[in-house]
């Protein structure tokens, strides 16, 4: 009765991690004079740079004699696998919703998963300080969402807390919440987040456990320690876990192995506290079990009973990771061989249940499946920062065959855009085979458009919409279902400009090439033959010499010494470059560079490959 296990679930950027910061401050985890950075649980470099939660984090607080274990979950749909496995470790959730945006695609996903597991929810309507808040409408939208997902009467009888997580304010009075934007300008407004904590204790039940039953603990997360090796994290569902005990580990393939419990910890604030035993209902960390994996059950060796494994949604896109074989291979990275690449990918797959790694017929190529382009690009960015070099193919969707017909993944897409750009957005989504669902007026001249669109149609859409709407559109999507194959979708309609030879880019050559399209390189950069150096203004590829120098002579023209004015090159992020490439191109990723190249580097070999294709119309100098 003195433990609550709760997950904070929401759409991306609705304030989950900020709310956890407020709860930690309210319960005295930080000293009153302690300087603490915002979003303390987003400890990874990529998380702080991007402002999103990528990995689920655990912490705990004490309130009114009750230990509350809190799990902060990712909000982006590409990391939905993190949310799915964490929900098996908790008994309830704080459903966080923006007071203006309301339920978004990821909100629907996490609510559906929470209802499937029978979790009790507390609705937290955050950001009530916004002048455009609409708390009544947001509550009705959440209520309708739960009803549409098949919620029972008890599921919709949830308490509602209105919060300003950034200032640490919470109230259960909707009248106070409506007036809050005016109240924050007045001095002396008390900041108290305790209504959230009271709602957790009253609404979310204690863990459903049997202390007299044999030991059972499902591993929901795995972390690595340089000295202790792999550490399993999970909730003790039955029995008592003691340091030094002999246990049985039930694996995914049905096998069982006997192991000994090493060090035991529980979460206390932001730290781990070493203990001798963990009782049923609490969340524990266990060391000294070799090859512990997510989904394994630590059980009583005399009567081992496995807990049903968490079922995670299957990946929807796939890319090929291969050894980098460009002319610049090995000059910037530390780990460049297929052995290094394969070991690192398999190690990642063990701690990320929504990632799959498979070998191919080629020894230096691995097939990696994930939940979205962001999911895979974060893996690439993490690996390149660790010193790995690789070449990556264009993302492709994973098709299914049902009744002899191909089916492809379909996303639920939401676009928030000014009404004046609605026609341009519709025009862009037409060739991408999007199906219009409905439209809602958001006020202030903005509309929210909902679509069902093939995952292939999402590729490159964000950048296209930002260009069409002058940076004013907001786009979110989440996997919905598998639908009928929609046919060909032309995502990139422009060709590539390809370096003719290896060398140094010159300003003279760049000046002459600018009228042919947008360049990705600038004078002084080193390029190699077959590297994509720009985007052609036409649909065909163009081989171009960017290393050409001005011919010297003893005749001087009056304007020959003038400075050359060049346009700045287009610098694409790793995610943008991954979506931009076509089927015959690769993305070269190294610790220092992200380059686009042709899969076939030699120009004559590319020409022969194109002419052997029945649809080819290109020549060697196109």
Can you tell me about this structure?
With 622 residues, the protein is of the alpha+beta class. It has five domains: 3-203, Rossmann fold, CATH 3.40.50.300; 216-299, Elongation Factor Tu (Ef-tu), domain 3 (Beta Barrel), CATH 2.40.30.10; 317-397, Alpha-Beta Plaits (2-Layer Sandwich), CATH 3.30.70; 400-484, Alpha-Beta Plaits (2-Layer Sandwich); 496-611, OB fold (Dihydrolipoamide Acetyltransferase, E2P). The chain has 16 helices and 36 strands. The strands form six sheets. Strands 19, 20, 21, 22, 23, 29, 31, 33, 34, 35 and 36 form an eleven-stranded mixed sheet that branches. Strands 8, 9, 10, 12, 13, 14, 15, 17 and 18 form a nine-stranded antiparallel sheet that branches. It has a seven-stranded mixed sheet with strand order 2-3-1-4-5-6-7, sandwiched between helices. The longest helix is centred in the N-terminal third of the chain and has 14 residues, at 135-148. Mean pLDDT is 85; it is low at 615-622.
Domain count: 5
**Rg, please?**
27 Å
**Content-based structural category:** alpha+beta
Question: Which CATH top level class of the largest domain fits?
Answer: Alpha Beta
What is the β-strand count? Answer: 36
Amount of helix:
10-25%
Distance between the ends: 74 Å
Average pLDDT reading: 85
The CATH superfamily of the largest domain turns out to be P-loop containing nucleotide triphosphate hydrolases
CATH architecture of the largest domain: 3-Layer(aba) Sandwich
- Rough shape? globular
Q: What are the low-pLDDT stretches, counting only 5+ consecutive residues below 50?
A: 615-622
């Amino acid at each position: 009765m003195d433990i609550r296990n709760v997950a904070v679930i929401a759409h991306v950027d609705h304030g989950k991690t900020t709310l956890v910061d407020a709860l930690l401050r309210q319960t005295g985890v930080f000293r009153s004079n302690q300087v603490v950075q915002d979003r303390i649980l987003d400890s990874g470099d990529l998380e702080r740079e991007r402002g999103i939660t990528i990995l689920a984090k655990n912490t705990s607080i004490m309130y009114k004699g009750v230990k509350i274990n809190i799990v902060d979950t990712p909000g982006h749909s590409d990391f939905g696998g993190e949310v799915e496995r964490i929900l098996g470790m908790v008994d309830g959730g704080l459903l966080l919703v923006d007071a203006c945006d309301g339920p978004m695609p990821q909100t629907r996903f996490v609510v559906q998963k929470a209802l499937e597991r029978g979790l009790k929810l507390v609705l937290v309507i955050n950001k009530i300080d916004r002048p455009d808040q609409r708390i009544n409408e947001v509550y009705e939208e959440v209520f309708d969402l739960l009803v549409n997902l098949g919620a029972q009467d008890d599921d919709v009888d949830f308490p509602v807390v209105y919060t300003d997580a950034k200032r640490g304010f919470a109230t259960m009075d909707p009248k106070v919440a409506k007036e809050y934007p005016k109240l924050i300008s007045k001095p002396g407004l008390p900041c108290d987040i305790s209504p959230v904590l009271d709602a957790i204790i009253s609404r979310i039940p204690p863990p459903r456990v049997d202390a007299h039953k044999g030991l059972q603990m499902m591993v929901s997360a795995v972390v690595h320690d340089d000295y202790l090796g792999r550490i399993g994290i999970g909730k003790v569902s039955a029995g008592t876990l003691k340091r030094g005990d002999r246990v049985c580990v039930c694996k995914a393939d049905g096998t069982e192995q006997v192991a000994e419990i090493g060090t035991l910890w529980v979460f206390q604030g932001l730290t781990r506290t070493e203990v001798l035993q963990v009782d049923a209902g609490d969340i524990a960390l266990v060391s000294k079990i070799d090859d512990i994996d997510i989904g394994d059950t630590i059980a009583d060796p005399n009567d081992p009973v496995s807990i049903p494994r968490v079922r995670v949604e299957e990946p929807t896109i796939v890319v090929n990771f291969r050894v980098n074989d460009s002319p610049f291979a090995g000059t910037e990275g530390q780990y460049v061989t297929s052995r290094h690449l394969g070991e690192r990918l398999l190690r990642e797959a063990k701690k990320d249940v929504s990632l799959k790694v498979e070998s191919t017929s080629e020894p230096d190529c691995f097939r990696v499946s994930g939940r979205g382009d962001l999911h895979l690009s974060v893996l690439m960015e993490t690996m390149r920062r660790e010193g790995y070099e690789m070449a990556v193919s264009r993302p492709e969707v994973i098709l299914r065959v049902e009744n002899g017909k191909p089916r492809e993944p379909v996303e639920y897409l939401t676009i928030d855009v000014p009404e004046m750009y609605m026609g341009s957005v519709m025009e862009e989504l037409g060739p991408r085979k999007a199906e219009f669902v409905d439209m809602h007026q958001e006020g202030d001249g903005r509309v929210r458009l909902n679509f069902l669109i093939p995952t292939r149609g999402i590729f490159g859409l964000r950048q296209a919409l930002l260009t069409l709407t002058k940076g004013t559109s907001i786009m979110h999507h989440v996997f919905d279902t598998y639908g009928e194959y929609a046919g060909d979708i032309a995502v990139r309609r422009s060709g590539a400009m390809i370096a003719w030879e290896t060398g140094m880019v010159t300003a003279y050559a760049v000046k002459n090439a600018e009228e042919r399209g947008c360049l990705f390189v600038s004078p002084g950069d080193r390029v190699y033959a077959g590297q994509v150096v720009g985007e052609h203004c036409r649909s065909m590829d163009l081989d171009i010499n960017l290393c050409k120098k001005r011919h010297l002579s003893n005749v001087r023209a009056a304007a020959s010494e003038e400075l050359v004015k060049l346009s700045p090159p287009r610098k694409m992020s790793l995610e943008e470059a991954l979506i931009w490439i076509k089927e015959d191109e690769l993305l070269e990723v190294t610790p220092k560079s992200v380059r686009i190249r042709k899969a076939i580097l030699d120009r004559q070999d590319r020409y022969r490959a194109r002419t052997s294709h029945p649809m080819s119309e290109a020549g060697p100098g196109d």
